[in-house]
Amino acid sequence: MNRILFLGTGTSTGVPQIGCQCEVCRSTDTHDQRLRTSALIELNGTRLLIDCGPDFRRQMLTYDIRQLSAVLLTHEHYDHMGGLDDLRPFGNVDVYAETRVLDAVKRVMPYCFAEQPYPGAPRMALHDIQPYRPFDVCGLPVVPIRLMHARLPILGFRVNRLAYLTDVKTMDRQARQALAGVDVLVLNALRKTEHPSHQTLDDALALVREIKPATTWLIHMSHDMGLHRVVQDELPAGVHLAYDGLEVPLDF
Fold first, then answer.
1. How many CB atoms lie within 10 A of CB 114?
2. One-character DSSP codes across 43-72
3. pLDDT of residue 154 exceeding 90
4. Which residues are 125's β-sheet partners?
5. Which helix (H) or strand (E) holds 107?
6. Cβ partners under 8 Å of residue 104, min gap 6
7. How much of the chain exceeds pLDDT 70, in percent?
8. Strand (E) positions, 130-238?
9. Distance set, CA 90 to CA 14, 98, 101, 141 (Å)
10. Is 156 exposed, middle or buried (0-12, 13-18, 19+ CB in 10 A)?
């Protein structure tokens, strides 16, 4: 089955946020309970995990995921790579990221890359990738797209007619051109009010109007976005708030 499975759709603090008593954090609607952002893209038997945050172990157990073809890292922030140690049961895993991010992985997990790795440490084969230079995972072409997370250069990924963009604040013309013809757009929208390093809901909707995908799924949302059922009713046709556990079939 070709699909994207949303493993987590929350921001770095998750939702509910520790110690918060707002209506979203107190909500009993499971759509308002968000682990840190990550997704599994499955196409023709190839399973791509995008980002491996601190909730990775729980996500794998919840959805009974036992095999991965590769891990794609968007950037080095903890909420996107803090779960790499839990790759241990998956054998030798191919991890794709740009040089700066791979260096961060080696810096925070030196026991995996020593001449004599720590017994039982996760085994990772690190692959350096660059924006707009396609790479192949089990016959599936993946195109990295340059995005800006405030002043930090990060990557989004295009796989066939799906594009996955998280933590983006701005992007240039080349990135927009790389999104031409996308049918399914996964896009971050942190909250409704301005933020220095993440798109607001209005920013995301403006990009949707420009790119014109058939369907958009919004991710990386904080409790400040509001209740899922309320915000969803405010969105234009074709735009949806994603939620943890959502499975969307892909017809390509």
1. 9
2. ETTEEEEE---TTHHHHHHHTT----SEEE
3. yes
4. 94
5. helix 99-108
6. 76, 81
7. 100
8. 135-137, 140-149, 152-159, 162-165, 184-188, 215-219
9. 25, 22, 21, 22
10. buried
Q: Residue 1 above 90 pLDDT?
A: no
pTM of the model: 0.98
Q: Residue-wise over 174-206: b if at least 16 C-beta within 10 A, else e? A: ebeebbeebebbbbbbbbeeebeebbbbebbbe
Please write the tens of the pLDDT for every residue from 193-225. Answer: 999 999 999 999 999 999 999 999 999 999 999
Interval 148-161 mean pLDDT = 98
Percentages helix, strand, coil for the chain, rounded to the nearest 5? 25, 30, 45
Cα–Cα nearest to 68, from 44, 98, 94: 94
